[in-house]
Every structure is written in C-alpha cells, then in structure tokens.
Amino acid sequence: MGADPEADARSGASGERYTNRVRVDTSDALESYIARDTVLGRDVELDVARAAGEGPGSDWILRETCALARLEDPRTPAILDVGTLEDGRRFLARSPARGVSLEGLLADAQASGNGGKILRALIGAAEVIAYAHARGVGHGDLGPDAVLVNDFGGVQVVGWRNATVSGPERRVEDDSNCRADLVSLRALLMQASGSIAFSGKAAETFARVLARFSSPDDPITNAAELVAALRPLLGAAGTSRRRLRLRFSNRAVMRAAAAVGVLAVSVTAATAAYIAYKKS
Question: What is the pTM of this model?
Fold first, then answer.
C-alpha cells in the first residue's frame, strides 16, 4: 500500500491498474501521484482531475496531453496512458520526472563547481523550447524548477500544463507562450550568470549573448538563435576556484611523485655501482 490510505482506497477506480498511489502534489483542480502501473510494470506520474466532466483539471490534462503528443523528444515527459476513470474524472499517466532541478543546481553551484553542468542544462532547455516552438507548442511556465538534470547530465523540461498548441500557419512570434518562453530563457541566463565562470573571450561572448536580448541591431528573437549563440561556450564554462586548486594540487603531487621516482632510480644505481666497486 502507498503512503496515502485515502488515495489507495481510490486506486480501484481504474480497474486496479494504478496502485500504491503516493500523492506528490494537489491543487483545486488536480491531484498528482506517483503510482505503480500494473500493466506496464513500472512507476508512473499520474495526474487526475479532482472533478468529473469538464472543468479546470480536465482542461489542464487535455492541454498537457495535446502538447506532449506533439513533442517526440526524450527530454520531455512521455505519455503512457490517458483517459477517463470509471467515476468520470480525466487522467494522464506519464513518465516520472527525475533529476535535480536547475533551481537546486544554482543553489549548490558555489559549493560544487557546477558551472559546466549549469550551462549544459541551459542549452538543453533552450534546445527543447526551440524544438517545441518549431512543433507549434509554447511552454508558458518555464522556470528553474521546470528544468531537471539527471546524474548523467541529461536534461528534461517538465511542467507543460499551461502549454499552448497552435497550427503550422501561426508564427512563433504571434504566440504569447512562445514569447514568454524567450523571456523566461533570458531570466534563467541572468539567474545563472553568477554561477558560471568564464574568462577572456568566453566571458565577452556570454555578455554579448545577454546584451542581444535588448539589442535593436542584432536581437535574439527566438530560442533557436539563443541555442546557436550559446553552443560555442560549451567548452569554456569554468569550475569553482576550489576545484581548480585541487586540480593544480593533484598535478603538483604527480610531478613530485615522478621526481621522487627518478631520484629513487638514481640512488639505486649509485648504490649498485658502489657495491660493485667494493667487491672488485
């Protein structure tokens, strides 16, 4: 049984497919759980509308389902099931969100030297948003808690409940969510700028990228342009000074060990030569 007895009691409404529900979030419109999918044999993230029929919860689920259905990218949650429970409430089952949020990485940046990981997360998020815009989807709620980074550095963008879906005839610039996404990406860059250590030309390049958002001559007008501007910086993101000191200390130790090895060989050779001389 899950940690929420009330939720477990309701798990039979879907024919016992989703069991052991543990509530992770709730609002006036939705209840969100981590549950066990007994058909697929895996854990899923389950959103269930709090009321049957049409309503805010049902609308949110429908909006997110339509958005994610257009996004064939492993860096967005995968739809595993969608439908209506026997009690009339709409539900969506998707792959669980896993990883540390960009918000968490930024909070820990000074201690862990995560500058490179943060930059890769920002570029990954911008790539996902650029792809979504190309598919006619605007996120509309992009913040540091919507960007997750797993143990291997992989990025996932979550939280598509407020997404907009438009037809191919509509320009990205005309979609309010797409415009909001670009503003959010700029805000994420500004928030992360104090945690990424650049030097020399890389620092100048990063400053120019930020300045281009408000430049009348060469503005960044979409997420794809931002990705192209940031990618050259991938190899230039620095680590914390503490890690640099450790790296240099390790090099010094290795050089000292090599010197000791050479000295030991020299002493051994000299000792052997002396013994041979005494025997002669």
Answer: 0.76
